[in-house]
Amino acid sequence: MALLILGIVLFLGVHLIRVVAPGLRTSMIASIGEAGWKIAYSVASILTLILLIYGFGQARDMTPIWSPPFWMSHITILLMLFAMICLVASLLPAGHIAVRTKHPMVLSVKIWALAHLLSNGDGAAILLFAAFLAWGVILRISLKRRQRAGEITLRPFVSAKYDLYAIIIGGVVWALIIWKLHAWIIGVSPLVM
């Protein structure tokens, strides 16, 4: 469990640098350049993600804290469709989904975390998904403050066709995850929860 906690703290800490130490990014870019910062940030993200995944794998044998009802997995599967659509919308030029949700990737992570909290009752899963949900809430509040301060601007609307693309691509990715990818990557089929 200690490795999981360390992985969560380090991974989410790296992804909260602008919130907890707003000047660090700017000073690092001034010191090592933007390319150097991106490389350091990417390496730190990958290494802490590996630690988080390894720690989660080690902590998975914990006794369940609660047993979700069997139908809760159906709600999780449905919520994950919306999470995938938001994720894809965040990667495309802005359509209505991206403009109205403002930060679709953050929303995608929050939906993913909430969905998995609903259908997982062991301590490691609760810790992991609650931490990511809290991260999403903290980041969204920070983004809203930065937007009000004029530090960031939201993406302008480009075309509704990108909503259609987000729905189609997100639906295909969701179907692939349900069909095989979740079982292949995570080791558990969402259809057998």
TrEMBL record:
The chain crosses the membrane at residues 40-57, 77-99, 124-143, 164-186. Residues 3-190 form the NnrU domain. Keywords: Membrane, Transmembrane, Transmembrane helix. GO terms for cellular component: membrane. It is a multi-pass membrane protein. The keyword Hydrolase does not apply. It is found in: Membrane. This is Uncharacterized membrane protein. It comes from Rhizobium lusitanum.
